[in-house]
Amino acid sequence: MFEITGRDGLARMGVLTTKSGKIETPALLPVVNPKIFTVTPRELYEEFGFKALITNSYIIRNNEDLKQRALSEGLHKMLDYDGVIMTDSGTFQSHMYGEVEVTNKEIIEFQKAIGTDIGTVLDIFTEPSWSEEKTKNAVDVTLERTAEAVSMKEDMMINGVVQGSVYNDLRTECARRMASMDVDVHPVGGVVPLMEQYRFSELVDVVISSKIGLNPNRPVHLFGAGHPMVLALSVLMGCDLFDSASYAKFARDDRLMFIDGTHRLGDMKHLDCDCPACRGHTVESLRALDKKDREKAIARHNLYQIRGEMNTVKRYLSEGRLWELAENRCRSHPALLEGLRRLYDYSEFLERTEPISRDGAMFYSGVETRGRPSFLRYSQRITSRYVPPTKKAALFLESGKPYSRCYAEEFDACRRAGFTPIVISPFGPVPAELDEIYPLAQSVFPMQREYDIGEEEDDLLSCFLEKAGFEEVVMWPVDTETEGEGYDVGVERARAVARYQFGNDAADALIRGRIELVTSRKTGKIRNVISEGEHVLSMRAGDGLFTLREEGARRILSAVPAPHMRITVNDDAVPFVSQGRNAFCRFVLSADPEIRPMEEVIVTDAEDRFVATGRALLTADEIASMSKGVAVKVRSGTGD
Ligand code: GUN
Ligand code: ZN
After folding, report:
1. pTM beyond 0.85, yes or no
2. Domain 2-347 classified CATH 3.40.50.700?
3. Using CA positions, which residue lies closest to atom 10 of ligand 1?
4. Which of 88, 123, 243, 254 is catalytic?
5. In angstroms, what is the span from residue 234 Cα to ligand 1's centroid?
6. Closest CA to ligand 1's atom 6
7. Residue among 29, 89, 92 to mutate when testing ligand 1 (max atoms within 8 A of CB)
8. Under CATH, which number does the domain 488-560 receive?
């Protein structure tokens, strides 16, 4: 059972419950070689706090002594480990050394017999060098073996490994078929060579192609990924579990892992690590240790690095800043940066899970920041949901925020001359009425611009100007004789934000007839929108977006056909949700596929009647696949 407790885009935090306890994700499982404990499982649990590890059932089964002990006392006792134990099946040995002498059935039986919590199918490791046909056959065999494992699993959870080499369609297809089986965790397999060879853009293809086919209600394990440098990017892509054998393997070769790569002790001139294993050491004193002690010290250092980065990833993820961390981490190696850039090819897929707003501001870290799905979202909405108050556009260059304050007098003059002020921002053209919404206002960019982005920006500007139907476009200032009345900026702002957020038809239903605005006495910002005497919307100070009031929701229900903005719950849930309880996924009958996380939604009953308003935490696909968890954080109900 996997419960998602938090998320940011594809990245999520969750809890995986197994028969030996719970794992909080994202989590990294150190690989324990059952023959040699570089660091003992007890130390991993107690000193490092790794509540789950992975070991190899094939190695145990092939060693008579270990096999007998594992069968008689059980795996947990044999390893002296109280946490969750995942076992691998021998697939990796077949990748390293060729054929293995065990059948899928035998290794599943064995994993069950030794009390593994999460066992692994004997999948076929699809090498990046393989032909498509060979890969396809291997995927078919892997799927057959997975079906066999599922039929035998009883109380053992099963890893259903997604294979498919570097063929994206095969990955997606394999993932889809895996998702339809009763497996518990989805590792993405066959990626070790890609990581070893720093082929990160292909790694991104493989992971995203797999994610596209997988069921969002199961954790995804990136098999063999344990270097701290890939964690932020991998969690960003929606991977929940990782494993690392390298902490011990590298230690054997005197190699130290750091967030920016791996360094040989022999080449290092200075030790800049203050982890408990390095504390008090210098490069020289580490070198002077005897082989065994040195190996242990470096392995512990490596584990501290991994643990530290995992914690950093969790902190950024919980703060909604994982993009920022991943962008910064990817600067440590051009191959990683290539991976991050490849992620742009999947912007449309990423946009579906991109939240409508976040608590904190968006920080620019370089040109890659422009590839974030928030930018695509903005360009899509601004070219389809904006209707200007006049047919004449006046362009301004960004000079500070908020625009309405920095350009207060200019905007005023511009409006009196019949122009609509538009600011050229890093997000593209921003109509002055939208200058307070997320992420436009809640973002920090350096004032000096890059010089290699001109064309894309020009395209967006022309597309915007054309779609908005402007007949005249000028750079402000212009000499003008005309001095009109201008227009009601507050109402235009309310209208523009409502269109951006809810679409044009819904906005027309919300902002109609006589409009009164309640504004903050301190900041002058809109608080409440009252249309024809009804309080329809309230504006949040934090992200400049609206929350929907009951009267507003009812107007949308009658003016805009379903499923727009709706999440429909069954009759059992109606009495609870209408009282203000959250709407749980299992009660949802259907949801608008266009809903994005953190978006305002209307909870309806099966007859499309109003039940409540709230914010969606998940997308329609996610809601449909989850058996547990909240779909809508409900704000208010009818109370009847
Ligand atoms: N360890 C690293 N990669 C793999 C893989 O593709 N399959 C299995 N079972 N284990 C792995
Ligand atoms: Zn260290």
Report:
1. yes
2. no
3. 92
4. 88
5. 16
6. 189
7. 92
8. 3.10.450.90
Residue spans per domain, the chain: 2-347, 362-475, 488-560, 562-640
> DSSP letters of 192-241?
HHHHHTT-HHHHHHHHHHHHHHS-TTS-EEETT---HHHHHHHHHTT--E
Under CATH, which number does the domain 562-640 receive?
2.30.130.10
pLDDT for 44-59, tens place per residue?
999 999 999 999 999 9
Q: Are strands 600-604 and 610-616 parallel, antiparallel or unpaired?
A: antiparallel
Burial code (b: 16+ CB inside 10 Å, e: under 16) for 392-408 equals bbbbbebeebbbbebbe
Does 2-347 match 562-640 in CATH topology? Answer: no
200 lines ligand 1 (CB under 6 A): no
Among the bound ligands, name the one nearest to the CA of residue 188.
1
301 CA to middle of ligand 2, Å?
4
- Over the chain, what is the mean pLDDT? 95
User: What is the token pair recorded at 80?
Assistant: 């002296």
Q: Please report, for residues 23, 328, 332, the alpha-carbon distance to residue 363 in angstroms, rounded to integers and kept in the order given.
A: 31, 11, 18
CATH 3.40.50.10630 fits 362-475, yes or no: yes
> Tell me, what's the pLDDT at 640?
42
Low-confidence winner among 288-297, 302-311, 484-493 (lowest mean pLDDT): 484-493
**Tens-digit pLDDT profile for residues 378-432:** 999 999 999 999 999 999 999 888 999 999 999 999 999 999 999 999 999 999 9
- Note if 88 is an active site residue: yes
First CA to last CA distance, the chain: 35
pLDDT of residue 266: 97
Ligand nearest to the CA of 297: 2
Return the H-helix or E-strand segment holding 146: helix 132-152
- The atom number, within ligand 1, closest to the CA of 126 reads 6
Residues 6+ apart with CB under 8 A from 148: 104, 105, 108
Task: Render pLDDT for 111-129 as a digit per residue (tens, 0 to 9).
Answer: 999 999 999 999 999 999 9
